[in-house]
Amino acid sequence: MIRTDDIARAAAVIREGGVIAYPTEAVYGLGCDPRNPDAVRRVLAIKERPEHKGLILIAASVDQLADFVSPLDDTLEARLLPTWPGPVTWVVPTPPETPRWLRGEHDSIAVRVTAHALTRDLCLAADTALVSTSANLSGATPARTADEVEQALGERVDLVLDGPTGGLDRPTEIRDARDGTILRPGQ
User: Fold this and answer.
1) How many CB atoms are located within 10 Å of the residue 149 CB?
2) Which of 16, 50, 169, 177 is the most buried (most CB within 10 A)?
3) Sequence spans of domains, the chain
4) Is 29 helix (H, G, I), strand (E, B) or coil?
5) Residue 35 CA, distance from chain mean position
6) What is the pTM of this model?
C-alpha cells in the first residue's frame, strides 16, 4: 500500500529537480518537472532518448496542462474531454514557446489526464504535470515493477515510487487530437 509520505517524498524530489520512476496505467514511467530543463534533459539521457522525438506529459487535471498546450477549441475539447481522466494520450497543438526539449521537433505535444490514482496523487502533491516516458532504455522492454526499474536503471534515478500499475497490458493509446488518428494502439 502506498503511504502518503511516500508520495510526498517523491513530490519533493520532483520539486527539487530530481528524476523519479513511478507506476502508471500499464508500465512504470520516468518523470520529472517539465518546467525544469536540466531534469528533462537528464530523463532523456537516462533513457538514451533523442530530444527530437518529444515527450508525453501526464497530469491530474486539464488545468495542469494549460501552460503546455494551445487553447483547445470546441472541437478538440469534444474529442479529448470525454476520454479523460483515462488511458488515452492525445497529441495536441502547443504554443511556439513550448520548449523543444519537451515537444521535440513537433508543433504539438502528447498529453494525458490520468485516472491512475497514485499518479494523479503524485501530480497533485508535486503541483505540476509530469514528464512521463516509459522507465527503460530506448528500445528495451518497459519496466512493470519497481524491481524491474531497479534492474534496468539502477542508481540513475533519484527515487522509485513503488506501487501497482493500473493493470493495462500495453501502454496507453496515443491519438492525434486534430483528426482523431490513432498513432499508437492501446488496449
Assistant:
1) 27
2) 177
3) 4-184
4) strand
5) 13
6) 0.94
